[in-house]
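Example S7 (structure tokens).
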């Protein structure tokens, strides 16, 4: 779905930011922007007692966020950056029902889970215009109850050499071919939107 040069650019983008106090390694502008994105994802449903797959998990901060809102969430975080997975294990590996795996999610076989979440995992530039659509379909095929994901809004976000936005209407139209009741959430951040899909 993405070529090797694109993947290398993503790794370099994040590695340059690790340890820089002025820039979040994950690319969040502020901790508050991460919280708002996580809150939007949680609107997909009650995840208490559910298995949740977090694609592009970064430092695994979604796990304690979910634990504050739901009970007995079994969580698996996946990220392609070994540095992020190592840090996620240090930060959150002690939490119950928590695991982290370093893998290329674009080529991974997803396990069947109740919910699949992805915050920013599809905001990378790719020469393959079908990249986000392919990943959404993979997420949908893996879920039992629903999926939720955040994307940058191409109408607002100024693309960089690594990050880019998507057209919310085009993404929603595709998602409604899979779930006719798919929802678009916007307005919680100026340059972001979330899609919620339920089985």
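Recovered sequence:
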């Amino acid at each position: 779905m993405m070529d090797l040069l694109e993947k290398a650019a993503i790794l370099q983008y994040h590695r340059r930011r690790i340890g820089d106090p002025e820039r979040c390694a994950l690319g969040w502008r502020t901790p508050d922007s991460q919280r708002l994105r996580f809150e939007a994802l949680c609107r997909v449903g009650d995840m208490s007692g559910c298995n949740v797959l977090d694609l592009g998990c970064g430092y695994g901060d979604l796990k304690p966020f979910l634990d504050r809102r739901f009970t007995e969430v079994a969580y698996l975080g996946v990220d392609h950056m070994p540095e992020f997975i190592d840090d996620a294990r240090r930060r959150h590996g002690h939490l119950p029902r928590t695991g982290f795996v370093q893998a290329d999610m674009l080529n991974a076989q997803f396990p069947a889970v109740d919910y699949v979440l992805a915050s920013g995992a599809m905001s990378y530039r790719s020469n393959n215009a079908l990249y986000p659509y392919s990943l959404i379909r993979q997420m949908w095929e893996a879920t039992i109850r629903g999926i939720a994901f955040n994307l940058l809004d191409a109408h607002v976000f100024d693309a960089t050499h690594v990050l880019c936005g998507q057209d919310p209407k085009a993404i929603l139209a595709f998602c409604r071919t899979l779930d006719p009741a798919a929802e678009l959430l916007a307005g919680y951040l100026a340059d972001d939107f979330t899609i919620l899909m339920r089985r």
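Notes on this example. The chain has six helices and seven strands.
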